[in-house]
Amino acid sequence: MDPKGQRVKLNDGHFIPVLGFGTFAPREVPKSEAVEVTKFAIEAGFRHIDSAYTYQNEEQVGQAIRSKIADGTVKREDIFYTSKVWSTFLRPDLVRPALEKSLKDLQLDYVDLYIIHQPVALMPGETLFPTDENGKPMFDSVDLCRTWEALEKCKDAGLTKSIGVSNFNHKQLEKILNKPGLKYKPVCNQVECHPYLNQSKLLEFCKSHDIVLVAYGALGAQRTLQWVNPNLPFLLEDPVLSAIAKKHKQTPALVALRYQIQRGVVVLAKSYNKKRIKENIQVFDFELTLEDMKAIDGLNSNIRYYDFQQ
To answer: Where is the NADP-dependent oxidoreductase domain (predicted)?
Structure first.
C-alpha cells in the first residue's frame, strides 16, 4: 500500500503520490546501487519514482520496478514513474525518440509523467553537455511551444500518461499556457524548493493554474556535489528546523519534507541510504502546527543550491 494513500489529482485527471523517491546520484555512485535502493524504496512504501534520461540510470531503475512487479510487491499501475526529456532533445522531432529510448532502457510500455528537464536547449549530438572549443555550453535555438506540442503527441500516443515541465519560471510557464491551440496544460512544474528557497510566488502562480509544484532539493544539498557552493548554510543543521524537529520527536529532514506536503507541494526525497529511505516514509506520521509552518516560512532567503543550469 502507498502510505495513507496520499495522492493529489493532476489537472488531466491522473493522480500523483505526494511523496516521491528521487533516484539521482552523483557520478561516483555505482549504477548497480540504483537497482538496490529503488527496490528498497518500493519495499519501504514509496510509489512515486523520479528519474531522468540524463541521470543515466533508467535501465537500473526500470529493472528495480520490474522486479518488484514480478515478485508481487506492486502492480505497474501502483507505480508513478517520472522521466524527463533532456536539453539536447528539445527539437520537436527528437522528443518522441528520446522518450522511446527511455522506455527501451526501462523496459516499460509507458511512463506516468514526462517532463521538459529545463527550459534551455542544447545542441543535439552524442554528448549530454555539448561545449565549444572554449568549454562554453553550445545552446540550440528551439521554440519550447513546439517542444510542448511534441510532448502532447507523446501523451496522445499513450507513451506517457501526463506531461509537465521542470525548472520553468512563471513567464516560461505562461508562454505555454497562452499558446494558441494548447491541447494539454502542464500538470506540474518541478523546481528546487526547500525552506531556504520556498518558491511561494511560483507556488501561488502554479496553484492558480491548477499546476502542481514538485520540489526537488527539498532537503537542501549534499556538500559533496560538485556544483554546490560549499559556503552555503547546511539546511538540515538549521536551528529553527532542529527545534521544530525536537518538539515533534522527528528529524529535521522529516520536518522539511512535511512542510512541503502541508503547503500542497509534491516532494521528492532523495537518498541512497536505506535507514534514511525508511525514515522519509514516516512523513505521514505527524503534523506541523500553523506556528511551525510560519516559522519555516520565515527561513526563506532565496538560497539556491542547484545553480548548475546557467
So the answer is: 19-300
